[in-house]
Amino acid sequence: MSKILIRGAGILGGRPQDVLIDGGTIAEVADTIEPGDAAVVEAAGQILLPGLVDLHTHLREPGREDSETVLTGTRAAAAGGYTAVHAMANTFPVADTAGVVEQVYRLGKESGYCDVQPVGAVTVGLAGKQLAELGAMHDSAAGVKVFSDDGKCVDDTVIMRRALEYVKAFDGVIAQHAQEPRLTEGAQMNEGIVSAELGLGGWPAVAEESIIARDVLLAAHVGSRVHICHLSTAGSVEIVRWAKSKGWNVTAEVTPHHLLLTDELVRTYDPVYKVNPPLRTATDVMALREALADGTIDCVATDHAPHPHEDKDCEWGAAAMGMVGLETALSVVQETMVETGLLDWAGVADRMSFRPARIGRLEGHGRPVSPGEPANLVLVDPAYRGAVDPADFASRSRNTPYKGRELPGRVTHTFLRGRATVVDGKLT
Amino acid sequence: MKHHLISAADLTRDDAVLILDTAEEMARVADRPIKKLPTLRGRTVVNLFYEDSTRTRISFEAAAKRLSADVINFSAKGSSVSKGESLKDTALTLEAMGADAVVIRHHASGAPYRLANSGWIDGSVVNAGDGTHEHPTQALLDAFTVRRRLVGRDAGMGRDLAGRRITIVGDVLHSRVARSNVLLLNTLGAQVTVVAPPTLVPIGVESWPCEVSYDLDAVLPKSDAVMMLRVQRERMNAAFFPTEREYARRYGLNGDRMARMPEHAVVMHPGPMNRGMEITAEVADSDRCTAVEQVANGVSIRMAVLYLLLGGNESAAAHTSRTDAVRTEETE
Ligand SMILES: [Zn+2]
């Protein structure tokens, strides 16, 4: 593989330096490096970060290839600056066996745009009744470490306890979609002032918080790792903060949209804003930003949830839940966290690469930008300003809430083990 | 007035009074031997019902026909609505057929708003009840009924409900009637109190322009009108209240309770009534109960709404007399 010299980028937002990539690894980092026979990428004014890692992506393949495939999803990921994504298990068939996770893993390898680490289901068919073969999925070629029934909550307390205990054998983690099912029957949006006016079924904050409270207690009791998916309320932040203060092994993620959007948008009845967990209040948004800044929330995860147009071009009640996020995540984080002064770029690298890679126990991702490390890198132009145009998306689906909205920052280059997947903002 | 009627909040005080006044004029048509005006001749009104409601559909149908509109009843119930494509596809069909107004009843809150704002259709959209959101023409007919009873039929013209105290009792949480009434009655200057067990009051009600009470007996003596909402027995199974008996005992309106209301106060019910549940037969059949009048007033209100949305913004008075002349020619 040829050599690439990235010239003059601020590493993790620090002073400009040159970085030489040789083959799949970073060969040299210095104030100035002679290009020699290397291809040069002029990157003055840009930020160089480790390739982003998503703990929570829905790639839809197998089963809903009309929404997304591993190929289109990983192209979207690369365009958004990601070099690794965790593919959620709620596919058709469900990723609850070694066979299905290996298929997804292999499709990721074939795509070549981004590493795909399958997430295994916790229970058979996501039905919440019987543990899936967690060990077999771990022992498979896919090497699954993260298990989740995402889309559904593992609400049976005993099943949750057993799952947490069982994965200790191979240092796995249970990623919980915290949603008490009875409290959210018929739920359509955040329960509060707006739902009372709109007459839409309420999804109360306590339905999330009560499950998180239970699960951190369970994880503490059995001495295992639990990860909270897409935490969305100020109360959830308080519980995670308390659990961490006890030294318990809990981690949490927040989506970009929960850092930016509020339930006021539901007044439009536009299903593009329909997502699970629902958009919350401005108070929640501020609490989430602060918790991400102080590390209570470990990382940003997209919950990239592609849906075809017809599943959103209808009345609110009939619409599918979810929004795409891979291609806008970094811009939203720049707007909500960097430009507000809550995080610097090193903090962004921590919350979008180092920590998610550590939670997922991913080798080769979330590494420092240093000689000898894998050349999984992303270059960002933070000065860029532009309106989001879904027509430009690599994702097969276009259900973004940011259509026409100006967001800062742009991924100009992404490198997966030294190979450029994005050059000058275009997929290779 | 706006192009659509989706929410009671779409109406200003003056809009609402204009509708009530126009409805009074329309009511006079009902007293004539030939109950018909040529006002909307050549216009097409579609009743698009995704949910059974014979009462509401017939009311809109009668209103449109009395204005000489062509009426198409489209019952979408039973067709494939699971994914909602049918709402858009149906809208496109109605658009192609040249619907001037679409009266929509839908089980999903917000469906009429989507229909009106998604560019699927150009005609006016009238919300005839959506999910647990709103039912603005019901609120208008309730306001019309209150104004007639408390302010007077002719004396009421041009007047709102300033200073009147109106109590809404029952399943506020699931009631589109309650939502629309709270908004409209407040716009008309009334003081509104909702009374229900706490389980049937929505979280977030504090932003509503009304008082909330859990104690019916305390509120009754201070009420000029008491609006009883229909309570579905299924709510008991979902643990919103323990038993029918306990509900009736605490929140049902019986003769004793009615006696605690001021002399002039009226009892209202949007129907159909659960006798023995939220209201006893004694109350339902008393002179103070306006349930039957509300049905008749519903036609006048819906005539007024269709007229104002499709016919123009001026008072119907001039128009009515002009069309009277036309009608006379026709009948001769
Ligand atoms: Zn989820």
UniProtKB/TrEMBL annotation, chain A:
Catalytic activity: (S)-dihydroorotate + H2O = N-carbamoyl-L-aspartate + H(+)
Gene3D superfamilies reported for this sequence: Metal-dependent hydrolases, Urease, subunit C, domain 1
InterPro entries in alphabetical order: DHOase, DHOase/Allantoinase_Hydrolase, DHOase_cat, Dihydroorotase_CS, Metal-dep_hydrolase_composite, Metal_Hydrolase
Cofactors, names only: Zn(2+)
EC code(s) of this entry: 3.5.2.3
Free-text remark on how the cofactor is bound: Binds 2 Zn(2+) ions per subunit.
Pathway info: Pyrimidine metabolism; UMP biosynthesis via de novo pathway; (S)-dihydroorotate from bicarbonate: step 3/3
Sequence positions that bind Zn(2+) 2: D150, H177, H230
Top EC class, one word: hydrolase
GO biological process: 'de novo' UMP biosynthetic process; purine nucleobase catabolic process
Keyword Nucleotide-binding: no
MF-aspect GO terms: allantoinase activity; dihydroorotase activity; zinc ion binding
List of residues binding substrate: H58, L59, R60, N90, N276, H307
Residues annotated as domain Dihydroorotase catalytic: 45-233
Pfam families xref list: DHOase
GO cellular component: cytoplasm
Binding site for Zn(2+) 1: H56, H58, D150, D303
HAMAP family noted in UniProt: PyrC_classI_B (MF_00220_B)
Purpose: Catalyzes the reversible cyclization of carbamoyl aspartate to dihydroorotate.
Homology family: Belongs to the metallo-dependent hydrolases superfamily. DHOase family. Class I DHOase subfamily.
Name of the protein this chain belongs to: Dihydroorotase
TrEMBL record, chain B:
Any one Gene Ontology cellular component term annotated for this protein: cytosol
Gene Ontology BP term (one): 'de novo' UMP biosynthetic process
Similarity comment text for this entry: Belongs to the aspartate/ornithine carbamoyltransferase superfamily. ATCase family.
Record-given protein name: Aspartate carbamoyltransferase
Key words of the record: Pyrimidine biosynthesis, Transferase
Highest taxon of the lineage: Bacteria
Family matches, as InterPro entries: Asp/Orn_carbamoyltranf_P-bd, Asp/Orn_carbamoylTrfase, Asp/Orn_carbamoylTrfase_sf, Asp_carbamoyltransf, Asp_carbamoyltransf_Asp/Orn-bd
Pfam families tied to this protein: OTCace, OTCace_N
Sites where the protein binds carbamoyl phosphate: R55, T56, R105, H135, Q138, G271, P272
Residue ranges annotated for the Aspartate/ornithine carbamoyltransferase carbamoyl-P binding domain, each copy included: 4-147
Binding site for L-aspartate: K83, R176, R230
UniProt domain Aspartate/ornithine carbamoyltransferase Asp/Orn-binding: residue ranges: 163-309
Subunit annotation: Heterododecamer (2C3:3R2) of six catalytic PyrB chains organized as two trimers (C3), and six regulatory PyrI chains organized as three dimers (R2).
Pathway in which the depicted protein is active: Pyrimidine metabolism; UMP biosynthesis via de novo pathway; (S)-dihydroorotate from bicarbonate: step 2/3
